[in-house]
Amino acid sequence: MKLIVSAHGMLAKEVVNSAGMVFGAIDDLDIVTFVPGENAETLKARYKELIDSYKEDEEILFLVDLFGGSPYNAAFETVIGQDRMDVITGLSLPMLIDVVGIRTMEEDIKADEVYDKLSGDYVKSCKKLLGNTNKDEMEDDEL
């Protein structure tokens, strides 16, 4: 499966660079940046150029930053009607690491199956975690 990572500014490039610190070089991944002065049509043209360079039956998964943003909108328009493609929003380093791990472990996974495999547990609060721990400790002390 090919991954296309796209986001506003240099976010996609930097998330991929950071993921490379964990995984090393990540194969079958392309980056599409979106900078001021560009629009969804620019992105769609870049996406099409990449897709045209892939095998015709290759599964393709877009990872983009914001639901409703230009990278998402262009990817959504590209994916509509394509069984071998999907788009997932909320790009982050933990998400990319999760997706690359899933793709590595399940070589034949389809693009539209990845979302259901994601842990999605990327947001944590230290204070909330500590608060729950402290509350548990207090309950244990009371026993």
UniProtKB/TrEMBL annotation:
Protein's recorded name: EIIAB-Man
GO aspect biological process, one term: phosphoenolpyruvate-dependent sugar phosphotransferase system
Keyword Transport: yes
Name of encoding gene: manX_2
Subcellular location: Cytoplasm
PTS EIIA type-4 domain span: 1-130
Pfam family, any one: EIIA-man
Keywords: Cytoplasm, Kinase, Phosphoprotein, Phosphotransferase system, Sugar transport, Transferase, Transport
Entries under InterPro entries matching the protein: Bacterial_PTS_sugar_comp, PTS_EIIA_man, PTS_EIIA_man-typ, PTS_EIIA_man-typ_sf, PTS_IIA_man
Alphabetized GO MF terms: kinase activity; phosphotransferase activity, alcohol group as acceptor
Main location group: cytoplasm
GO (cellular component) term, any one: cytoplasm
Organism: Anaerostipes hadrus
